[in-house]
Amino acid sequence: MLDIIQRLESVDPRRGLYLYEDFVGPPEFVPYREFASRVAGAAEHFRARGVAQGTRVVLPFETSSSVIFAFLGLMELGAVPLSVKPYILSTPKGPYRDFLARIRERYGASLVLDAPSLSGLELPLERLPLPPAGAKVAGAKLREVAPGELAFVQFSSGSTSFPKGVPITQENLAANLRMITRHDGRTTGDRVTSWLPLYHDMGLIGGLLTCIAVGNDLLLSQPASFLMDPMGWLELISSERVMGSVIPNFAIDYALKTLKSADADDLKRLDLSRVRSIYLGSEPINIPNLEQFLDILAPCGLRRDVFMPCYGMAETVLMVASVPPGQTVRVITAPNGQPAISVGRPLTEFEVRLRTEDGRLCGEGELGEIELRGGSLAPSYYQDDRPLRGDEGFYATGDLGFQKAGELFITGRINDRIKVNGQSFFSADFEQAVERLAFIRPGRTAVIQVKGRLVVLAEVNHPSALERLEDSRKQVCQSVLETVGVTLPPQDVLFIRYGQLQKTSSGKLQRRSITEAYEQGRIRTVTPMELRADLLQMRAQRIVLGSVMVARQRGRRWMASGKAALSAGLQRLRPGGQRQDGP
């Protein structure tokens, strides 16, 4: 990575990192030409504080230039950044402190980067100050690294256990970056946007480091900016002539709510014709929602072949397979009778095979667990005795799928498999069926199996769904029957208080924890009065977090419409629309 940053000194001075607090205001621009000097400046700051090669530093990876250069500066020293989720305001402090304490104990880290989110938080580690703003070493020559040297540690999603540290070597990092950028064919003249958090592999590798590797512009926004303003993300793509992005499926589901109620004039202003490739991954893809998204934005120039469903994981740095640019999404029927979407052919560097539940290797179109070998697969977990690879060098991913004509199809996780009358389904099959209903909150449903019973735990978005409780339950059961073909008793559909469905740092449901909470009687159903209180609290938080963003967005749109009206008026005043100089 450091040799790539060194070479950036010769790129076009207009190329670089554009950091947005939201999708509206002017960004902070850091030209790639300055990266080497900024990295060296951060390294000198840390060296003066005793950080040396091999020092383990817990790094809450916030989206800011100071934290990005701190991360790269630690890499320049040969220290080991442990990339973790930053503390998020309004969330409990105790569990976050406990998480940091477990990281300290498990990996022997004594320092934590003093990122702004940690202000006022009691910590179980010594704070390491951030480098001063704009710290540089002019004319810096970054060191050469050995291929097997540890670059940083990223963590698995932790959907079934405490997140496992994955050691990312310089060699594996460079290899996976080459795979990704070769696959999408981007050039230095392209522009990419991302709002994904940098503590997650999709955000760090797929969003940030691929752009640095090629030297193409990256328009990087805060994760909360998308949550507050999904339309603003599309407006940024339109106004800044963006070629591509990398997003989880959640983004499609979430943005669709806004698009369905968007003003026609707002949609008319969007020009998405330059978009060529959007990596789409992280979760089971909701196929009907993806189709609706494409239908709504087709008049804005968004082509149906821009989405590239992909598959990857922290253990391989990131990407293992992806649909290539310019290929429409392929959907076929899976062995369990449910629709499945192709994630393309595995990259040539990886060897992929599938194994059935009874241990036999799968044939064409047969469902089994995905096993990987080669490519940028990590040699082991970080300071962990648990083996990553089996006797033949294959890593059993825990993901289930099948292959057809060389393409890979992902159907779900082993731990998410649900068996009904001898037939295999996946939790996501049921959850997507439930979330088709307008009164269910998108992304806030968990379907679990307890002693053979299927139980639906869902959050609703309006008290009226609770006031006609039996009818709402029957609608859920009907949607599941029509979509999945399984009958549910209405009494096993529970509408619950907000905030009880635990998720990983990457947004995946922690199904084991949710199931345990249900079995122990800790999942609370919600009354209309409690739901009104939850909605008021959530609305207040959104007002506090989003008032400035919304005001600035409205201001920009008002200015845009005002300028357009003024321009049209001036054109009408000028004979023939010709330019006139002078008074």
From TrEMBL:
Molecular function GO terms recorded: adenylyltransferase activity; ligase activity
Keywords: Ligase
Biological process according to GO: fatty acid biosynthetic process
Location of the AMP-dependent synthetase/ligase domain: 30-382
Database matches in PROSITE patterns: AMP_BINDING (PS00455)
One of the record's GO cellular component terms: plasma membrane
InterPro entries hit by this protein: AMP-bd_C, AMP-bd_C_sf, AMP-binding_CS, AMP-dep_synth/lig_dom, ANL_N_sf
Ligase listed as a keyword: yes
Similarity comment text for this entry: Belongs to the ATP-dependent AMP-binding enzyme family.
Name used for this protein in its record: Fatty acyl-AMP ligase
